[in-house]
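Q: I have two molecules that I believe assemble together. Could you output structure tokens for the complex as a whole instead of separate predictions?
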Amino acid sequence: MGGTVDLRPPDFDSLVDAARLLRGVAAVTPLLRSDALDARLGASVWIKAECLQRTGSFKFRGAWTNISRLPEDRRRRGVVAYSSGNHAQAVAAAARLQNIPATIAMPLDAPAIKRSRTESWGADVRPFDRDAVDRVGFAEALAEDLGRPIVPPYDHPDTIAGQGTVGLEIASQCRALGIVPDAVVVPCGGGGLIAGIATALKTAMPGVPVHPCEPAAGNDTLRSLEAGRRIALPGPVRSVCDSLLAETPGELTFEINRQVLAPGIAIEDADALHAMQVAFEDMKLVLEPGGAAGLAALTSGEKPCRGRTIVAVASGGNVDAEIFVRALNGPETQ
Amino acid sequence: MGGTVDLRPPDFDSLVDAARLLRGVAAVTPLLRSDALDARLGASVWIKAECLQRTGSFKFRGAWTNISRLPEDRRRRGVVAYSSGNHAQAVAAAARLQNIPATIAMPLDAPAIKRSRTESWGADVRPFDRDAVDRVGFAEALAEDLGRPIVPPYDHPDTIAGQGTVGLEIASQCRALGIVPDAVVVPCGGGGLIAGIATALKTAMPGVPVHPCEPAAGNDTLRSLEAGRRIALPGPVRSVCDSLLAETPGELTFEINRQVLAPGIAIEDADALHAMQVAFEDMKLVLEPGGAAGLAALTSGEKPCRGRTIVAVASGGNVDAEIFVRALNGPETQ
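A: Yes, here they are, computed for all two components at once.
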């Protein structure tokens, strides 16, 4: 996509405009705390519950913003997207709510709930084999065939602006509570959510470190931040965090993230599953493995946040019962 | 307790005062919707998510209000309570936050998470056998021994006033959303929550029917409403809805409820478990069986709410993993 899109980072005003577009359409998700979680971690932890967002993840914000900003003549033809599931549902929902068709390329191993939900929004789902087919190329061919624009999952200023509204809400909710967090931890796949959040906080809550949390097996952003340039992992990533399987940071997202992010935190699969169990017990929230990566950065290891005030973004809750049961059954079965 | 407490129903102003006492202490829980749930039911459903309340259920509201209104000389000696779990945790938390001791009588078969959470608040837990011991008598003996007041789980005007703040929030949240529900469905055990909610709505959102939802095996309120007088069930109730096991409506709660409630709805155990599964999939919320009784009234049977706008109170989320897994595994294992 590099040659065809405007790769300038969205500015703060673009996020504010996205919030306006989303008003009355997306949920303002709550910032939640629990005595049990705080006691467990010896810290003051606030969960930004994007699992309670429309379609069960933050992705609706970016999809809606992106589609809303398409020129009318392009939008009315419909859209194409590629996604392991959360962006798929989000684009399907946004398209349906705007009365335009959506065609979505999804990997064959996407969670069943994500595929069925995407279809239930009326989208035309085209499955592909993640190991054999390049998803971007597959989607670009679809888009050309259909004469429709692609809604990029992360590497686009309008998508990032939409996700950044999570950061605007965090800042205003923290202000209302009278708290200034010592850090914000955010699940990171392609980096669109955290790029948007960091853009928002740079202006709205400056000086607060924002840490990307990603699967240890897919630590492309962590390694790229350390190297100061985009590093591509060799081949498809295997992790229970199906929503965080990017093999390389986005061009635009990394351009933003390399300037503003604090160091990355690597999450083992078992840590993500444990964080899901903690969210079940302490927060009464259903998180998917990737959505729990931020919380996992706090609940794994040696209480790294003791005595501090942390905002953890819980980015999604679309998980099949089978995986959730695995998380509840604890480490001996993982 | 009949002889010793003031059995006048709380008025609307008492609820408003309770809301003032709870400000900054209890959560204002969100009123949530989901496209998936609405599509499933062909209705517009709003979930008042009290599972996200402090201690994981609405009970904190009543416990805090009740303890806060004790005369200073009685309060400082500490409190006694009896409860299968949610009221236990709530009293333990409220007492701890007010720096007074709490002694709590809990049945031996209370869910493990409820007992451990009560103990983690520093309460002195006294287990008893539900089949062999009268819980009220047991708690009254404890209270006399210790020279402390009992915090009644439902049959007290201050407890009811606290729970009624759920209704105040529903009314103000509905107003902000521009909706007027066709009905409100509320899980019902001793009847304190629904008595408080109905008291709030009678003034704040008049004319909206409020339906109690209770286990079919413990339908004391349903039968009492039909009979126009309090009916006691013969012996201990067996249901997966451990938080709704009252054998008879409270005196004061029934005095309120018989005047204001719409007909009761009986919930089978399998319906409550199914509603938990629906809340997992569609809402990303963890509900306990009793907390899902309101939603179960909508998700069981022949789409009874088709075309209507309903508020369902999800009263709690304190459930052991074992029961939650049973709910996720579906009817064949129930």
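A: One point stands out. Chain B has 14 helices and nine strands.
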